[in-house]
Amino acid sequence: MSQLAVVVVAAGKGSRMQTVESKQFLILDGKPILVHTLSLFQKMEQVNSIVLVTGADDVERCRGYIKQYGLSKVQSVVAGGQERQDSVYKGLQMLTTDTEWVLVHDGVRPFTAMEHIIACWHKAMETGAAVLAVPVKDTIKVVDTTGKIQSTPDRRSLWAIQTPQAFRFSLLLEAYEQAKKTGFIGTDDAMLVEQLGISVQVVEADYYNIKITTPEDLPWANWIIHNVRGEKQS
Ligand SMILES: Nc1ccn([C@@H]2O[C@H](COP(=O)(O)OP(=O)(O)OP(=O)(O)O)[C@@H](O)[C@H]2O)c(=O)n1
Ligand SMILES: C[C@](O)(CO)[C@H](O)COP(=O)(O)O
Q1: Residue 73 Cα to ligand 1 middle (Å)
Q2: So what's the pLDDT on residue 230?
Q3: 1, pLDDT greater than 70
Q4: Its Enzyme Commission number (predicted)?
Q5: Which residues line ligand 1 (CB under 6 A)?
């Protein structure tokens, strides 16, 4: 049986949300957003362990949530770093050497469909690396600093990338170690693997797998949990 671990990163400040409370701890349908996210992986029989990365000041309250909500697969809670990438790296360093596969997931993406998580992992088992994504719906322009359009990439080749992102653990660790050496900073995990010259596969997910980022995402999240992805729906 393959050892599957999950690193959930929740050490961001949530500055774009503009709330006093960090967005991962905002209450959605009676529970912190982060608890909804952790519960996705707690429920999966394929998952052996979860590492939670959070802010240094939030480690104790996260331990409290783990106890309160019975999140027994969370084996460690560690303090994150300055950038998302630093937080993921800290999480990866907590995994044991028998870990074969790892999923990296944002703590503020509580609505990933189980079938998509599994499809992503299965694709990674075939190819080494896979991420969830959706085709972009809008026309995307490359715009310079003066506001002038430089180009319009062909929309058929554009995908909005989500998490989880699934990798053979040894590959992702190598990618993170290489990025540390070269000082490369990426905005997702796949970028670090791409830097090694290794291709990453996209697995189509859905538009409900939002990253709760800005204030207008909250009513949308509330609608999703009550109409699509809440406990009553699953
Ligand atoms: N230093 C950081 C930065 C981000 N994250 C996590 O990475 C995920 C995606 O990041 P994002 O939505 O950008 O969160 P924030 O960095 O918190 O938001 P903002 O950029 O608005 O401050 C979140 O679960 C966030 O907590 C993290 O663990 N460590
Ligand atoms: C990893 C990610 O969620 C994929 O969409 C995203 O890149 C995180 O970016 P952010 O800058 O932390 O919002």
Answers
A1: 22
A2: 72
A3: no
A4: 2.7.7.60
A5: 9-16, 24, 53, 80-84, 87, 106-108, 211, 213
Task: Tell me what ipTM this predicted complex has.
Answer: 0.97
Cα distances from 217 to residues 21, 72, 208, in angstroms, run 16, 29, 11
Q: How many residues does the chain have?
A: 234
- Atom of ligand 2 at shortest range from CA of 188: 1
Every domain of the chain and the residues it spans? 4-225
Non-local (6+) Cβ contacts of 15 within 8 A are none
Q: What is the CATH number of domain 4-225?
A: 3.90.550.10
Please state whether beta strands 101-106 and 159-168 pair in parallel, antiparallel, or not at all (unpaired): antiparallel
What is the residue with the minimal CA distance to atom 9 of ligand 1?
106
DSSP result, 94-159: TS-TT--EEEEEETT-TT--HHHHHHHHHHHHHHSEEEEEEE--S---EE-TTS-EEE---GGG-E
